[in-house]
Specification:
InterPro entries: NAD(P)-bd_dom_sf, Sc_DH/Rdtase_CS, SDR_fam
Number of domains: 1
Largest sheet: 7 strands, parallel
CATH topology: Rossmann fold
Low-confidence stretches: none
Number of helices: 8
CATH architecture: 3-Layer(aba) Sandwich
Bound molecules: 2-hydroxyethylsulfonic acid
CATH class: Alpha Beta
Organism: Amycolatopsis saalfeldensis
Family: Belongs to the short-chain dehydrogenases/reductases (SDR) family.
Structural class: alpha/beta
Strand content: 15-25%
Protein name: 3-hydroxy acid dehydrogenase / malonic semialdehyde reductase
Mean pLDDT: 98
GO molecular function, one term: oxidoreductase activity, acting on the CH-OH group of donors, NAD or NADP as acceptor
Distance between the termini: 63 Å
């Protein structure tokens, strides 16, 4: 039975990814900050889920929680670094510094904390898979994407560099880079709880769903052991690139 460790597991992509792995018969360590939401997920999914209250920004908590995982729950085969967020869509000169700090602390610092804590066990066992949740925002710049996109560019390059470091260990690394996904709190969080603004992002479209992302994550993990899916870039059909902007006097 596979052991999967999912961060940000209490909602959105994380909950969908947890459900997807439980459906295939895996056991899932579901880590998130919200004890209440985790408890609801655990009671929905039963004994296949071990809920763990964890703030990935806290390096000491990450080390002690991972060190205390009981028995096979601690032999993590697949780490899904999903915890992350976007805050704000203002241009850089008007953005809130606190928003930038929060994105860096979760999307970058938190992700490396959990990765660093789980990698030695994977290397020792000669197998494992780190699946990061990146974003198309790490590749395609857009107005207001500033620090959010930069954190996801970090996740992209960190994923590729991990592959180099893990050469010959049998440990796999994948970066899943979604475009527009509806039905999660992503935009609500980005716009500080403003439901109307968040709803406008998806109005008149058929965006991806959290289940689509969970399917990609699961697919990458289900490839034979000799296959490493480096990057999955996934957008809804309604989303594509546009021309570069030109400022005219
Ligand atoms: C989410 C995709 O386009 O809203 O990471 O930045 S986007």
């Amino acid at each position: 039975m596979k052991t999967v460790f999912v961060t940000g597991a209490s909602a959105g992509f994380g909950a969908a990814i947890t459900r997807r792995f439980v459906a295939e018969g895996a056991r899932v360590v579901a880590a998130a900050r919200s004890a209440d939401k985790l408890a609801a997920l655990a009671s929905e999914l039963g004994e296949a889920v071990l809920p763990v209250v964890l703030d990935v920004q806290d390096a000491e908590a990450v080390t002690s929680v991972i060190g205390a995982l009981p028995g096979e729950w601690g032999q993590v085969d697949v780490l899904v670094n999903n915890a992350g967020l976007a805050k704000g869509l203002e241009p850089a000169h008007r953005a809130q510094l606190a928003d930038w700090d929060q994105m860096i602390a979760t999307n970058v610092t938190g992700l490396v904390h959990v990765t660093r804590a789980l990698l030695p066990g994977m290397v020792e066992r000669g197998s494992g898979h780190v699946i990061n949740i990146g974003s198309i925002a790490g590749t395609y710049p857009y107005p207001g994407g500033n620090v959010y996109g930069a954190t996801k560019a970090f996740v992209h390059q960190f994923s590729l560099n991990l592959r180099s470091d893990l050469h010959g260990t049998g440990v796999r690394v994948t970066n899943v880079e979604p475009g527009m996904v509806g039905g999660t709190d992503f935009s609500k969080v980005r716009f500080d709880g403003d439901e109307a603004k968040a709803g406008n992002v998806y109005a008149g479209t058929t965006p991806l769903t959290a289940e689509d992302i969970a399917e990609s994550v699961h697919w990458a993990s289900a490839q034979p052991p000799h296959v490493n899916v480096n990057v999955i870039e996934i957008m809804p059909v309604v989303q594509s690139s546009a021309a570069l902007q030109i400022y005219r006097e």
